[in-house]
Specification:
3 helices
Length: about 120
Amino acid sequence: MKICITSGGRTLDAAVDARFGRCAFFIFYDTDTGDLEAQENPNARFQGGAGIQSGQMMAAQGVKAVLTGNMGPNAFQTLSAAGIAVYTGLSGPVRQAVEDYKSGKLKAQQGPSVGSKFGAQG
């Protein structure tokens, strides 16, 4: 199954990014094969709509779950509509987030963890 983890870097040793729509990188990880693809977030600098655009990107990539620090209401709604599970409150290395997900330690969220514009640059 393909999952996505927001990240500050390109590897499993990078820290989970606290933002979804404006994270630095998306790490796409296949839990069956261990294949990893890191992609710079093309939506990070958007004035508005970064969460929605990032959510649509997840759906287009075939992601089934997103692991991140925080998620706003627009992104959460976009992902929920696409049937993508959302896990928030993560920090530390991406590798640990993946292991916690695979071992069933994480609980899918039923709503956003922050208000809109949480990750916007000043």
